[in-house]
Design a protein that fits this description.
2 strands, 72 residues, mainly alpha, 53% helix, 4 helices
């Protein structure tokens, strides 16, 4: 997962404003108690995303993004 996809998932799940706040303030205890931003400096975006999903109880069905219907 690229970091750009990570931020897309963050904004889709938590909203643009809250995603930034969450990244700065939420400590991921599964990743040593670092904030999301601190963890992104050394961990893969995928690892950070799934740790955050576990902490925030994001349902499995939404962990890979929204499943928007195709428009014709």
């Amino acid at each position: 997962m690229r970091e750009s996809k990570f931020w897309e998932l963050m904004e889709d799940e938590f909203g643009a404003s809250y995603a930034g706040h969450l990244a700065r303030s939420h400590h991921l205890f599964a990743l040593g108690g670092r904030t999301v931003l601190e963890a992104l400096a050394t961990e893969s975006p995928r690892t950070v995303w799934f740790a955050l999903c576990d902490d925030m109880d994001v349902p499995e069905a939404r962990r890979f993004g929204r499943d928007d219907p195709v428009r014709s």
